[in-house]
Amino acid sequence: MTERKGVVIVGEFSDANLAPISSELLAIGRKLADESGQELSAVFIGNEISDQVTNEAIFFGAERVYVIDAPLFKDYLNDSYVGALEQLDKEIMPETLLLGHTSLGRDVAPRLAFRLDTGVTLDCIDLSIDAETKLVEKTKPVYGGNAIAKYICEEGRPQMATVRAKAVSPLGRDASRSGEIVAFDPGLDEVAMRGKVVGRVKEEVAGVKLEDADVVICGGRGLVGPEPFEKLHELAGILNGAVGATRHPCDAGWCPYHYQIGLTGKLISPSLYIGIALSGSSQHQAGMSGSKIIVAINNDPEANIFGIAHYGVVADYQKVLPSFIEKCGELSSKKGPDIGIEIQKEGRSQNE
Ligand SMILES: Cc1cc2nc3c(=O)[nH]c(=O)nc-3n(C[C@H](O)[C@H](O)[C@H](O)COP(=O)(O)OP(=O)(O)OC[C@H]3O[C@@H](n4cnc5c(N)ncnc54)[C@H](O)[C@@H]3O)c2cc1C
To answer: What does the alpha-carbon distance between residue 11 and residue 300 come to, in Å, rounded to a whole number?
Structure first.
């Protein structure tokens, strides 16, 4: 039997640009490859993939880039993407296969793991090579972020994981790096695909995307209606951030569903998260506990969110928010919109 070797990351891109998750995966993949003396490859699936994407993957750490490029892959379909990766796995037999914990990774990874008869650890925040077993040790938050667990996959190959966005910093871009670009034809039969894309509707997102934002202003049920979201947008505009929500405001139609942060919503890890009139349920924390600085405004001092907040204001948000917005506006006109992420403090503060 051929020995499995190498670390492979499944890259993502948008138009001709490498998605941030790709350079993050390359950084963690590079670490694993170096620690285990293996090569790091990236794979991109799509149609008419730009050279810029593949070159950038090399500049950010890949030694080899596999390109699976055909009209069949123009639109994402889990059938075709899983099939392509299954064939690539048979061809190159990697020891480790990493995906982003993105919409694509969340959809593809469990299906692919099933096809390859291996395990997958989802939503990892760190990966390293275990000194004793030489296997990949996968670290991930569990119980809604209240504990950290470490996993090793003893049986089944490749060792698979999805990695949370912003859990790792990309390596510095080095345009002097060179690598190999290899076209791979998985030989899939389009007719055998069970799904078909019949149309695409692009959701218009004004400003910074929630999952990429460095500052997130999140509203909860305590806002009691859609109007206060305008205030949240005003604050987000000043701080160059994005607005999110807990589940209730989305269910109630106060804001669109793509605002939802949490277990069944988006996963975010901004430098600054400001939670307004939300309790901090475990399901919500599952999506935001990776935020670097957490600020909470809630009129209930017993609210869960204060258990994880670095800064807390116990008050009616209606009394606090206008002056907070005014102050941020003043500071931003003097110092620019980066004022939010200049806030740095070790440890947690009192909820006062
Ligand atoms: C399977 C499942 C999946 C779920 N997925 C998600 C998910 O992805 N994301 C998510 O968010 N939820 C999710 N939920 C729902 C979750 O359990 C909670 O119900 C939800 O997060 C609570 O939202 P909230 O904090 O806005 O509301 P509440 O828990 O009702 O909290 C509102 C808070 O606002 C405060 N408040 C009220 N008025 C004011 C005021 N004037 N000023 C200041 N504070 C005020 C209150 O003190 C209270 O703490 C899920 C639930 C299930 C069962």
So the answer is: 44
- What DSSP character marks residue 103? H
Ligand 1, atom 38, lies closest to the CA of: 222
**Residue holding tokens 């060792």?**
159
Domains and CATH numbers, the chain: 7-192 (3.40.50.620), 210-342 (3.40.50.1220)
Residue 239 belongs to what H/E stretch? helix 228-239
Residue minimizing CA distance to atom 15 of ligand 1: 247
Ligand 1 centroid, distance to 253 Cα (angstroms)? 15
Give CA–CA dist 26/329, Å, rounded: 38
Q: Cβ(282) to ligand 1 under 6 A?
A: no
pTM of the full structure:
0.74
Question: Under 8 Å CB-to-CB from 151, ≥6 apart: which residues?
Answer: 121, 137, 138, 140
Distance from the CA of 282 to the center of ligand 1, in angstroms? 9
Separation of 147 CA from ligand 1 center, angstroms? 21
What digits encode the pLDDT tens for the residues 33-90? 999 999 999 999 999 999 999 999 999 999 999 999 999 999 999 999 999 999 999 9
CB 116 within 8 A of CB 86: yes
Handedness of CA 90, 81, 135, 169 (dihedral sign): positive
Q: Is 264 in the pocket of ligand 1 (CB under 6 A)?
A: yes
